[in-house]
Amino acid sequence: MKAELNWIKTDERHQSAETEFGTAWIRTDRAGKVSGIYLCGGETSKWVPESEEEETLTGAKLIVDLLLAGARAAREISRLC
């Protein structure tokens, strides 16, 4: 299991954390709900919240953890091939 990400509030509506794949960003709207999750590495991937839970910072951080777990699994599978 990887260590917990160190999230930094970069401005009023963005938080970022460094990962082994690049920078993860969480963007919120003016009401404080998460409007987008971005993983920026070789390519930029965007996730748009699909539920009320995902619109919270806690939910968004969980989504980032899940996306990173998927990326780690894909990396391991590609090493086996």
Strand order of the largest sheet: 1-2-3-4-5
Average pLDDT metric: 93
What's the number of extended β-strand segments?
A: 5
Query: What kind of oligomer do you see?
Result: single chain
> What is the terminal-to-terminal distance?
23 Å
User: Which class best fits the helix and strand makeup?
Assistant: alpha+beta
Spans with pLDDT under 50 lasting ≥5 residues? none
Report on the architecture of this protein.
The protein is of the alpha+beta class. It contains one helix and five strands. The protein has a five-stranded antiparallel β-sheet, covered by helices on one side. The longest helix is centred in the last third of the chain and has 24 residues, at 57-80. The chain is elongated and about 45 Å long. The two termini are 23 Å apart.
Name some characteristics of this structure.
81 residues, alpha+beta, five-stranded antiparallel β-sheet, elongated
Summarize the structure.
The protein is α+β, with helices and mostly antiparallel strands. It has one helix spanning 57-80, and strands spanning 8-11, 14-19, 22-28, 34-40, 44-47. The two termini are 23 Å apart.
How would you summarize the topology of this molecule?
Layout: E1 8-11, E2 14-19, E3 22-28, E4 34-40, E5 44-47, H1 57-80
Antiparallel strand pairs: 1-2, 2-3, 3-4, 4-5
